[in-house]
Amino acid sequence: MRRHYFLSPIALLFFHSLAFADNMAPTGTLRAAYLSSNPAQAVRDPITGEIRGASADVARELARRRNVPVALMPLPNPATVIEAVARGETDIGFVAYAPERVGVVEFSQIYMLVQQSFVVPDNSRIRRVADIDAQGRRIAGGKGDSITLYLARNLKHATLVETDNTPADARRKLLAGEIDAYGANRQRLTNLLREMPGYRLLPDSLFGVTQAIIVAKGKPVVLRDINAFIDDIRASGFLQDAVTRSGVIGLEVAPAGTTLQR
User: Of the candidates 32, 72, 95, 249, which lies 20 to 30 Å from 62 by C-alpha distance?
Assistant: First the structure.
């Protein structure tokens, strides 16, 4: 006689979780890498150690919906985030899209825009972003940073200078007169100005860096699920709430259909 076996709801949930873990979180925990130097993504509270920010909220919500815990993994620069995802050391990563970064990972649709601008001395003749690209001017950005890649593609007259991606190096180069302007997202620049009297932030923005979620190559189902998740949190208002809670200057929800190319 043939026997029929039925799984209880708890067993079904268990096997569903295993299937998901094999698909997106093979360790059973969703490992999410983010840029420790980018307050537009997330910051660690120096007193409590809590990681908060829009990208951290997005990672937690993705894990919650999949019934797995999340491990937020701060990494120092975009290259290390991309490398960790490509090697399978993390499951997803938060990083800005740039054409130079295509190849070893897959990018989701855009979920946020981070406005970029420049800090200049108070007495600088640079009044707006349009004044940046002039002969003889030395314009800086962090090595490998999105704005630096953008400037490398688009500057026609000014000279591009790279910093080591730390506020200390940007401050030193500005104070020493080695550069005429330093570019980054508006929150980073606002933080920098707190320790730099005699400098100002330009009133307008260069462009909005397109923030995406990356996954390793060869995972089309994972990428599809992440894109569907982004559609849902945008439509539900969760993403806007996360941006608002972050309090980050110059951070916006990307409209549906925002192009990857910058």
Answer: 249
Decide: pTM greater than 0.85. no
How are beta strands 105-107 and 92-96 bridged, if at all?
unpaired
Question: How many Å apart are CA 200 and CA 221, to the nearest integer?
Answer: 46
Q: What is the pLDDT of residues 91-135, one digit of tens each?
A: 999 999 888 888 889 999 999 999 999 999 999 999 999 999 999
9 versus 161: which is more confidently predicted? 161
52 and 174 part of one domain: no
Q: Are 116 and 63 in contact (CB under 8 A)?
A: no
Place of tokens 């972050």: 246
Distance in angstroms (rounded) separating the CA atoms of residues 262 and 99: 8
- pLDDT tens-place string over residues 164-211: 988 999 999 999 999 999 999 999 999 999 989 999 999 999 888 899
Measured distance CA(95)–CA(34) in Å, rounded? 7
Judged against a pLDDT cut of 70, whether residue 90 lies above it is answered with yes
141 Cβ neighbours under 8 A, 6+ residues apart: 147, 148, 151, 160, 162, 163, 182, 183, 184
CA distance 78 to 167: 16
Strand partners, 94: 213
Instruction: Decide: 128 and 203 in contact? Cβ < 8 Å.
Output: yes
- Give residue for tokens 């949190």: 233
Is residue 57 in some structural domain? yes
